[in-house]
Amino acid sequence: MKRFLIFSIFMFVGLIAFAQQDPLFTQYTFNKLLVNPAYAGSREDLTVNVVNRAQWISIDGAPNTLTLSAHKAVKDKNVGFGLYVLRDAIGPTTNTSLMGTYSYRIMLANSFFSFGLQGGVNYFDFAWNEMNLRDEDYLFDPANVRKITPDVNVGFYYQSQKFFAGISSKHLLENDYGFITEGYKSTFTRLSRHFYLMAGGVVPLRDKILFRPSTLVKFVRNAPVQFDVTGCIIFKNSLMVGASFRTEKAVTLMTEVALTDKIRLGYSYDIYFNELQLYNYGSSEIRLEFDIRLFESRMVTPRYF
């Protein structure tokens, strides 16, 4: 009965804490492939992003997420391909995802509309032996939970030189990925379907200085809707500074610098104003982006998305 109760409490608290099961990313506008599969190939160059996020610094077992993503358009075609690997660790649990992406673009006069589909697998690992019990219990010896499940995501995306918008849904299959049985009773946690709506644009302020607002709305059943509102200033397309507000009572400071014309480094720091603010030092996210040109691009430059 104890293992059944602890498992249920942990999963319930997890849903309350994150307001969604997907890992959180502050720099979502620079790494849209993880949110919307229709973004694949939108930059035409081979774009590679490496992101590491450490959430709730100083809390043992707090979320830590590492991702590697890449996407590219096929030469002289309206097709894009992408791939991402994601590892999300929270306490004794680890979620690892491998997703392949296909997108098809309809080219318009000075913009495009695309449809995208992602498919892959999630590997869920709950290591009971990594749990730190305050009082040692020699009768508490549950088996680890490990499960591989298929996953499918879908998205639609529109982009012009100075505006973008997209809508997507992840985890369409809603598979069970954590399951444990105690006697005749069983409990599980289901990967709930997530919905994302994003939009943003670029507004010239003065010569080579731009304002880039954006927003991301996230919805999952049985959790409050979450809003991210971001505003960034871009200087000469080489330096960006900005801030965002998240409805879970968090404010973010962020920056991005162009190390070369093909390599960019981004950093963000989240400051919380909720019940957790007394127990952690915020969240830190670092991103490294590479653009690799394999053939001449037909896209208009500079590109802001």
Strand order of the largest sheet: 1-2-3-4-5-6-7-10-12-13-14-15-16-17
Counted by DSSP, the helix tally is 1
- What is the string of helix and strand elements? HEEEEEEEEEEEEEEEEE
Number of strands: 17
Tell me what portion of residues adopts beta-strand conformation: over 45%
What is the CA-CA span between the terminal residues? 51 Å
Return Rg in Å. Answer: 20 Å
Estimate the mean pLDDT confidence.
83
Class derived from helix and strand content: mainly beta
Profile the largest sheet.
14 strands, antiparallel, barrel
Roughly how much helix do the residues carry, as a percent range?
under 10%
* Model regions low in confidence, pLDDT < 50 over at least 5 residues: 1-19
Instruction: Give the overall shape.
Output: globular
